[in-house]
Amino acid sequence: MTDEIERLRVELGDRAYEIVVGPRLIESAGREIQPLLRRRQVVIVSDETVARHCLPRLRDSLSEAGIAHHTVLLPPGEETKDLDHFGRLAEKILAFGIERGTMLVALGGGVVGDVTGFAAATLLRGIDFAQIPTTLLAQVDSSVGGKTGINIRIGKNLIGAFYQPRLVLADMSTLMTLPRRELLAGYAEIVKYGLIRDVEFFAWLEAEGRAVCDLAPAPLRRAVMTSCAMKADIVASDEREEGDRALLNFGHTFGHALETETGFSAKLLHGEAVGLGMVLAFDFAAHMGLVAAEEAERVRRHLNEMGLPTQLSAIGLAGIPADRLIAHMSKDKKVRDGRITLILPRRIGEAFVMKDAPLGELSDFLDGAA
Ligand code: NAD
Ligand code: GLY
Predict the structure, then answer these.
(1) From ligand 1's centre to the CA of 184, what distance in Å?
(2) According to a count of CB atoms within 10 Å of the terminal CB, is the N or C end of the chain lower?
(3) Centroid of ligand 1 to alpha carbon of 223 (angstroms)
(4) Is 208 a catalytic residue?
(5) CATH code for position 205
(6) pLDDT per residue as tens digits for the range 217-271
(7) 340 and 284 both lie in a single domain
(8) What contacts 9, CB < 8 A, 6 or more positions away?
C-alpha cells in the first residue's frame, strides 16, 4: 500500500468531523482519537472475527497514546443488530463505569458501527463515538453520515437515531483479510455513487473496478475517497434525509424486499441486495420508459462482470410473486400514506425520488423479472 493518507470533512457545524482514508491507520488511531477525548477512557466495540485481525493493533495504539480502554466483543453477523444483543452490550459498557466523557470506538463493519453508534446515541443520553470501519461497505457508506440503529422483528433498522461520529478512520489495510464476497458487496455501494450522481465515476469504475476489488492501493483509495466525498457532501446538505439524502437509498427499496425474503441471512448480503436492487431500479425505469434500455443493460453488465448477482434467479427467487415483494416494499421507511417511494434513474449519473410508484406497473414489471 502507498503511504498516502487523505482527509476530508463532513461539514456539520459544531458536529463536523474528519474522515481519514489510508493504509495502517489503526496503528495511529490512539494519536488521532486522543485530541478528541474529554476523558482518557474509551470502550472498543468489535466483533469476534474483526477482533482476531485488528484488535491487538488498536489496543497497542491506544495504550501508546495513554488512553485507558475496555473492550466488548459481539458475535459477527446481522443477528447481532437486535434488541437482545443491544441490551447486553449496553449493560456491559455501563458496567465499566463510563462517564459522559467516555468515547465508544466501533471497530468493524456496518453491523458493529450501527449498533455502537446507537449505543453512543442513547447511553447516558449521548456520548461520543468514533468509527473504524473494516469492511469496504462500512468504509464507503455506513461509517459516514450518522445513521445508527438496530433491527426488530417487524423490520430492519426500525429503531435508531441520527447521531454523528466524532471521527472516521478508514484503514484500507484492514480490507486485506475481508472475504472476496464481502468486498464485492461493498463494491456495489461504490457503484451506487456513480449511478446516482457521477457518470464519469461510473465509467472509471467500469475500467478500474477489478483493480479496486483486488485492493490495488491507488484505485482503492480513489474509490473510497470519491464515495466518502459524495456521501459527506450529501449528508452535510441533508443530514436527516428530508431531501437529497434519499438518493443514497438507490436500489435499497428493491434490495430490502429481497433481503426480507431471504431472511436477512448470508444467502444475500446487504450490498448484494443493493446491487441487484439497483439493476431492478434501472430495469423498472426502462420498463416505464424513463431510462434507455441500453443504460439498464450497461449497469447489469458491469455488476455481472464484477461477479455480483444481477438476476433474481441468481439468488433463488426467480418466479417470486410480485405481490410478495410489493408487500415487503410497503414496509419501507420511505412509505408515505401507504404509497411506495422509489429512487429511480433518469440516466447513469442522475437519479430522482418517485413519491408514488404506480403499483400496477410495478406489479407487471416484477412478475416479468427473471
Ligand atoms: P458486517 O458488519 O456484518 O461485516 C461483514 C462480515 O465481515 C462480518 O462477518 C464481519 O465479522 C466480517 N469482517 C468485517 N471486517 C473484516 C475484516 N477486515 N476482515 C475479515 N472479516 C471482516 O457487514 P457490513 O456489510 O459491513 O455492514 C452491513 C450492515 O451495515 C447492515 O446491517 C446494514 O443495514 C448496515 N448499513 C448501515 C448504513 C448506515 O448508513 N448506517 C449504510 C449501509 C449499511
Ligand atoms: N446509506 C444511506 C444513508 O446513509 O443515507
Answers:
(1) 12
(2) C
(3) 18
(4) no
(5) 1.20.1090.10
(6) 999 999 999 999 999 999 999 999 999 999 999 999 999 999 989 988 889 999 9
(7) yes
(8) 16, 17, 18, 19, 232
